[in-house]
Amino acid sequence: MRTHSERLRRNLLVGGSTGVLLALLFLFPTSRNHVSTPSVSTVTPGIVSTSPGTGDITVNGASAGTRYGPVQVRITIKGRRLTAVTAVVYPSEGGRDREISSFSLPQLEQEALAAQSSRIDTVSGATFTSDGYRRSLQSALDAAHFRSAG
User: Fold this and answer.
1) Based on the structure, what is the number of domains in the chain?
2) How far is Cα 129 from Cα 2, in angstroms, rounded to an integer?
3) Same domain as 21, residue 71
4) Across the chain, how many H-helices and E-strands are there?
5) How far apart are CA 102 and CA 142, in angstroms?
6) Can you spell out the DSSP letters for 12-68?
């Protein structure tokens, strides 16, 4: 049989533990727990500019929604070559989002320029960002009626 002080100690321990867990739940960032897209401005998809003198065309891809926020790219084409791919919108709401974007976006850009298409590999640890990047890139290439020279 437990004494009154043992029951009190046990109740305080259970109550204190519950309080700590509740505090952690309220303090823990929940942006990753929601599937909804955060409210982030995107740019209007389609042709942004053409330069008859240089032959450059700049096109925004459509915004591609991902679990962690939209991804949208802008491409530049000169002649029949993809010369630049820039992510203009990407997940950046939390520290982890910024970390993933900072290492994955340069890799995705490099791969897109090398492939001259949206057929690029997924960056490990950035599956959702990679998928959104590919979809936005393909929409920009489609809007520009781009077919790789290779």
Assistant:
1) 2
2) 56
3) no
4) 3, 4
5) 26
6) HHHHHHHHHHHHHHHHS--GGG--SPP----PPPEEEEEETTTTEEEEEPPPB--TT
pLDDT, tens digit, 9 for 90 and up, residues 97-145? 999 999 999 999 999 999 999 999 999 999 999 999 999 999 999 999 8
Query: Could you list the residue range(s) of the whole structural domain that residue 9 is in?
Result: 4-33
d(CA 28, CA 111): 35
Q: How far is CA 99 from the centre of its chain?
A: 11
What does pTM read for this prediction?
0.69
Residues whose CB is less than 8 angstroms from the CB of residue 87 and which lie 6 or more positions away in sequence, other chains included: 71, 72, 73, 101, 105, 108, 109, 133
Task: Examine residue 84 and state whether it is found in any structural domain, yes or no.
Answer: yes
DSSP state of 71: B
